[in-house]
Write a structure and sequence with these properties.
Number of domains: 2
Shape: globular
InterPro entries: NMT1/THI5 (IPR027939), SsuA/THI5 (IPR015168)
CATH class of the largest domain: Alpha Beta
Organism: Bradyrhizobium uaiense
GO biological process, one term: thiamine biosynthetic process
Strand order of the largest sheet: 2-1-3-10-4
Keywords: Signal
Structural class: alpha/beta
Number of strands: 10
Strand content: 15-25%
Protein name: ABC transporter substrate-binding protein
Oligomer: single chain
Order of helices and strands: HHEHHEHEHEEEHEHEHEEHHHHHH
Length: about 325
Amino acid sequence: MSLRATLTSFALASSLIAAPALAADKVIFQLDWLPGGDKAPIYVCIHDGFCRDAGLDVTIASGRGSTDAISRLAAGSADVGVADIGALLAAKANENVKVTAIFSEFNKGPHALYVIKSGRIGSMADLKGKTIATSPFTSSNFYLPLVLKDKGVESSDVKLIKAEPGSLGPMLMAGNVDGIVAWMTDLTRYRNQGKEAGKEIVVLPWSAAGLELYSASLIANDDFLAKRPEVAKRFVEAYKMSIEFAKAEPAKAAAAVKAIVAEISTEDVEGSLNDTLPLIFNEVTDKDGLGVFEPARLAETWRRVSAAQSIDPAKFDPEKAVTRHFIPAK
């Protein structure tokens, strides 16, 4: 029996009984950014039939960042989507948006520093007096001062240059900066750029430097969860199977993205997916399970987010931003 057939028969058996016999339930899925390897599960869900087998007709809506995705979900223009739970916690604390996190996808943050091997930076503690480039809009910028402080470095001791995302790699390869702030999901792309320039890229994940937090998560409109809970439950089950399929069959998962987004490179998608998987499957997953919001890690996420956003941590209880009702059993 194929992996997809096995997953479908064992994990969806009960929910399929409740699935509509004649017409699939329509669901609008909100992206938080452009299609790519880190977004492969939703494309797998559609292309490889996990959503269909769950009785769902899913449409993907494009997005421009987690804040945008949360706003669209809160407005009811989408039912469920993916966004950084840090952005959700801040939005709930400040505005009490009617959106809730229902499944943890990245149980480690994607934030990292890329440097040249044998360069002037060997660890995050070496950043004093160095020049770093970053994108103006990345959420990593909020966390950088926290990571620096953990390593005994003041933000004022680092020269931070903000540049367009596409120029970060060339700036690093040319030696114009000592390092660049980027996500772990882009590791393959930057290493390929390094090979072309004859340089070896080293990545310093901020999770390894002590920044422990949840990141990308499935979040949903509260009315959707209240009025169509069985649809939400079937969607999360199908999405979870799609993640597991992407782990087992990354080439097929990349092909699923390519089948729906024709202009994208299958090779680039597969590389990004392989870079993304360690953010989903790791020692945290081994301990807690896939999709789980473990209370202590969620509290630590809020501690970091509130510090990064200058919000009084006592202002909000992070448990109010999540529900564990829709997370499938291990």
